[in-house]
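Predict the 3D structure for this chain.
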Amino acid sequence: MDDALLQQARALPKIELHRHLEGSLRINTLISIGLEHGLTLPSTTEEGLRPFVQLMPGEPRTWQQFLSKFAVLRQFYRSKPIIQRVTHEVIADAAADNVRYLELRFTPQALNNLMKCAFDNIVDWVCAAAAEAAAAHDIQCALILSMNRHETVEVAKGVIETAIAFKDRGIVGIDLAGQESGFSSQPFARLFERAKAAGLFITIHAGEWSGAENVREAVESLGANRIGHGVRAGEDPTVVRLLIERGIPLEVCPTSNVDSGVIGTYADHPITALYQAGVRTTLNTDDPLISNITLSDEYAAAMRLLGFSIGDIKRHILTAADSTFLPEEERAALVARFRSWLDSDQGGKLQ
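Done. Predicted structure below.
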């Protein structure tokens, strides 16, 4: 990585719209939790545990290999103190990378597989820790509750009712993730209508491991305000036009897309074509632990491998600011604040 580009990226105030709590943990924290709870770990050193929770050079870049890292991570969510510790650390790590606004998503079902408690408890713990971490590290943080399309509608109903109940605690939206291929989003449509009517925003993982038709379904049937990934939208020009006409932003995670086998190489990533066509694209990490990246790394890679200029990066940041799940006045104030910061940056004013 070009040190000059990385330093330039680190200096920028950033926005992250697509980061999963479960894919953002610290390896040394996993070891600490494992030792405290007597877990049988593959290794009790950072370098020894790393290959089990992070993609390593030379590993196959497939969705199976990518998701296999989460199998190890699931054994660590065992108590309220653990949930609150990892939440605090994920937000602290974002702030250390000069992320000024973060929308952090998490899956209550994933955090609750071992404890088997009410979703209200899980969400309460995350909300409390997130508020404390945001205040301690001078970062604005909002939360998105996620559910999986390959799980039951009953689970999704519980997540959405909990999201509505915790709207005044920092929950701003809901997300449908999981296996796209073979699992339609249609069974969740009524639930998402309820969420939207209650004032929650909607983001849908679509056009990642399946085609452009899922992006269309997310927009037209589920009322998506944003699309998670959406990189395969370019396979259908009518879907690209739909995104442009409706101003639907894409939460693009280029490194993750390569790591999960969606895209062959970073240099071939379709974000360039989508951005140049007029689609509202944003840059995000997805799972910093799994991919061993920061958002600064992502910005620097976009400049080095995709030919993005510093002006392109700044426009992506402003698009992200204008795509946040905030009330209109707060969103406008955030855009103005970021424009001021970015205009004062040594890279020059935005045109």
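Residues 120 and 165 are 8 Å apart (CA to CA).
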